[in-house]
Amino acid sequence: MDSVDLQVLKTAAAWSRAGYRSTLSTVTRTWGSAPRPVGAMMLIRNDGLVVGSVSGGCIEDDLIERVKDGQLGLSKPELTSYGASGDKDRHFGLPCGGTLQLVLEPISDYHWIADILDMLERGIPATRTLDMQSGAITLTAASAGSALCRFDGRNLTSTFGPRYRLLIIGGGQLSVYLAQVALGLDYQITVCDPREEYADSWSVPGVTLTREMPDDAVIALRMDTHCAVVALTHDPKLDDMALLEALKSPAFYVGALGSRANHARRRERLQLFDLTPEQINRLRGPIGLYIGSRTPPEIAISILAEMTSIRNGVLPADNSRAPTLVEAGGNICLA
After folding, report:
1. Which structural domain range is residue 148 located in?
2. SS (H, E, C) 218-279
3. What is the pLDDT of residues 141-200, one digit of tens each?
4. Between vectors from CA 94 to CA 42 and to CA 129, what angle results, nearest 5°?
5. Residue 275 — very low, low, confident or very high, per pLDDT cuts 50/70/90?
6. Helices 3-17 and 111-121, interaxial angle, to 10°?
7. Are residues 63 and 178 in the same domain?
8. For the range 12-20, what are the long-range contacts, defined as Cβ-Cβ under 8 Å and sequence gap of 24 or more?
9. Residue 226: which of 247, 191, 256, 252 has the closest Cα?
10. What whole-number distance in Å separates Cα of residue 243 and Cα of residue 267?
11. Second label for 29, Cα 20 to 30 Å away, from 14, 100, 190, 217?
12. What pLDDT, in 10s, does the model give residues 75-133?
């Protein structure tokens, strides 16, 4: 799920526990160009504080004023639209020329939010069904392939999770920056490094550190399609161990840092093991989108940019095709 929307849920629970009233808005349909996708959420507290977004700003301003002025006064969910094709009484143009349909609902009971957050923490994706007539909420474990958001006029069904997970092999300087940026994208991050000189100095809050061998770490995490593995040690004895297991897993992204020459040698080594050509072609390398990066923070950004492009379907999951001019080059090896 989107890390922004996860923050909306966490904030909703915190505000409700503190006794505040708030209104949750969810994008249920878009026409034309729209700044935020279906399922995007925004929470507005009764005093006007906001977290999340549903548009480029104009709709937010209008909704905030309606909440602060008490115009909504919701006792149960209601539907509203903005844009050229929206309800005439709520006619409001979007800067991009599109139209949005929103479900607005009052938030008072936070227990269902706490239950969703608990499920996500345990790695269980959750489906929430909101009855538009009664406001009743039903929670179930999400099934594989569940739509992120579905609205049929009577029920709003939203799926949350699973959260994306990132396994970083190596606890060096680049790993620190990669973990810090990935935390902002709401990855659950594990850093694996059995080397004492690196593991003993690891100090990024919110990141799990394991000292087990890399192949054991991959197996222990039970990789799924919401997982990524990035090998950064430059040591074949460590990186290759992780790659051998990761390339056989459903992980959506598997990459290793190194030059083109190192990447070619790595592929040759992997061919000596029980990996198919298709599995080897999944290995991203040289790692990251080419943005002229040279420093560890820049390389971290380029790696996460590549991961994001694959998550969003901009780049294919395998690395078998020739790179474009924009992608050519990859990131240099820091060793």
Report:
1. 3-160
2. HHHCCCCCCEEEEECCCCHHHHHHHHHHHCCCCCCEEEECCCHHHHHHHHHHHCCCCCCHHH
3. 987 666 789 999 999 999 988 788 999 999 999 999 999 999 988 899 999 999 999 999
4. 35
5. very high
6. 140
7. no
8. 12/43, 12/107, 12/110, 12/113, 13/110, 13/113, 13/114, 13/117, 15/43, 15/45, 15/107, 16/107, 16/108, 16/109, 16/110, 16/113, 17/110, 20/45, 20/46, 20/47
9. 252
10. 10
11. 14
12. 889 999 887 554 444 445 555 556 789 999 999 888 899 999 999 888 788 999 999 99
Q: What is the CATH number of the domain that holds 291?
A: 3.40.50.720
107-118 per-position pLDDT tens digit: 988 889 999 999
Map residue 318 onto helix, strand or coil: coil
Does 154 share its domain with 61? yes
Among all chains, which residue has been given the structure tokens 């249920």? 28
pTM above threshold 0.90: no
